[in-house]
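Colleagues,

For the teaching module next term, I've prepared a clean inverse folding example: a structure given as tokens, and then the sequence designed for it. I'd like students to try predicting residues themselves before seeing the answer, so please don't circulate the second half yet.
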């Protein structure tokens, strides 16, 4: 079964797409669609920076959640993302949430990892466990 890619932005270096979960839903797209036009425009700017330049150097706009997981940041809005290891030039946004504390809550990070794995399982391009390098923080083991 092939994953239908719903793009947030097609850049010169990367395509930025919404990841699909096991139920066929696109949690990040659903979150994004409910935002105000002003918030969407701010996030579109971040998509352009990453999609066209491939680098994210501003820690106020791009966060590192560890183990290959990052986040787009716009005020209190967070959109976790990762570089797809099985599809060159693809960045997948997992879901969105509103920041309430200084750090991303562990359940949101776990949700992002789960959605990434579910998206990879649905993709014909995914190869074995070489989907994403995601480790368990406590044991440092690769998770599949």
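(Answer key — instructors only)
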């Amino acid at each position: 079964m092939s994953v239908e890619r719903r793009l947030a932005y097609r850049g010169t270096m990367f395509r930025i797409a919404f990841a699909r979960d096991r139920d066929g839903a696109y949690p990040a797209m659903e979150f994004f669609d409910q935002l105000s036009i002003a918030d969407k425009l701010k996030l579109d700017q971040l998509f352009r920076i990453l999609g066209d330049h491939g680098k994210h150097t501003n820690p106020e706009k791009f966060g590192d959640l560890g183990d290959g997981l990052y986040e787009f940041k716009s005020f209190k809005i967070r959109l976790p993302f990762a570089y797809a290891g099985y599809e060159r030039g693809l960045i997948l946004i997992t879901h969105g949430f509103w920041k309430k504390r200084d750090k991303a809550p562990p359940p949101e990070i776990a949700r992002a990892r789960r959605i990434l794995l579910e998206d990879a399982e649905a993709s014909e391009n995914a190869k074995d466990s070489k989907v994403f390098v995601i480790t368990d923080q406590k044991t440092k083991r690769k998770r599949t």
